[in-house]
Amino acid sequence: MKRIFALWLCVAVMGMLVVTGESALAAQTVDEQPYHFGFKKSKGGELPSIAQEGFMHLIEKQGGIFLGDTAKKEIFLTFDNGYENGYTPKVLDVLKAKKVPAAFFVTGHFVKDQPALMRRMASEGHIIGNHSWSHPDMSTISSTEIRSELDRVRNASAELTGQKEMKYVRPPRGIFSEKALASCREAGYTSVFWSVAYKDWDTNIQQGADYAYQQVIRQLHPGAVILLHSVSKDNTEALASIIDEARKQGYEFKSLDDLKVKHYQ
């Protein structure tokens, strides 16, 4: 009888150990439908919204970031760095001169190609976030593959900068599923979306610094998470003016580490 009980206990324990990674997520009720992040833009100081996009409850459930504290005039500046186009040094110069913290979401390509810039970001106090190693559609790959993508960036970044902690992730191309968000969360990350953005990533369609300035300033709102792409010449040339005008309007630039209150509209 003791042997039978011991055998049963062994099988039960083994079964529990198997429920990890993919199995753990499978045991939960998670939505595997792919979503492409989008939002209703802020106009005239009104708050932006994701209420009509069909995924608000998933981002909230998985602890993602869309808005900070909408009762405070705080701004969180973030950049996506898929590759280097010659402008990140100037962006860093402006941030240093203006004493503005930022978060840079980097891919494997950027980490491998720009070790000096990676070290500079870290040494100047900016957050380095994870944008995946190969920029895949995370809604189409397994939790194990997602973990591998994230681990490769974190490990390579740590080797360059000495910073072992990496807390924030941005889904490549803004495509995600609840399963992808849950996988990132299990890996210790907070998924960071955005509430201010415009089409700035196409290097063949740059329309001047004033255009970039107007696109960002007209969307400002309390608790804003701004997404800019560092490959944009327009963004680089407009950044100082954007910072100055935002401060003139009473906004304060804060680090993502200071974002304590999350709002979902």
TrEMBL record:
Upper taxonomic lineage: Bacteria, Bacillati, Bacillota, Bacilli, Bacillales
Species this chain originates from: Paenibacillus terrae
One example GO MF annotation: hydrolase activity, acting on carbon-nitrogen (but not peptide) bonds
GO biological process: carbohydrate metabolic process
Highest rank taxon of the organism: Bacteria
Gene3D superfamilies in alphabetical order: Glycoside hydrolase/deacetylase
Keyword Signal attributed: yes
Tagged with keyword Transferase: no
Cellular component GO terms held in the UniProt record: membrane
Domain NodB homology, chain residue ranges per copy: 73-254
Cross-referenced Pfam families: Polysacc_deac_1
Name the record gives this protein: Polysaccharide deacetylase
PANTHER family the record matches: GLYCOSYL TRANSFERASE-RELATED, PEPTIDOGLYCAN-N-ACETYLMURAMIC ACID DEACETYLASE PDAA
InterPro entries, sorted: Glyco_hydro/deAcase_b/a-brl, NODB_dom, Polysacc_deacetylase_ArnD, Spore_PdaA
Record key words, sorted: Signal
NCBIfam families the record matches: spore_pdaA (TIGR02884)
Residues annotated as signal peptide: 1-26
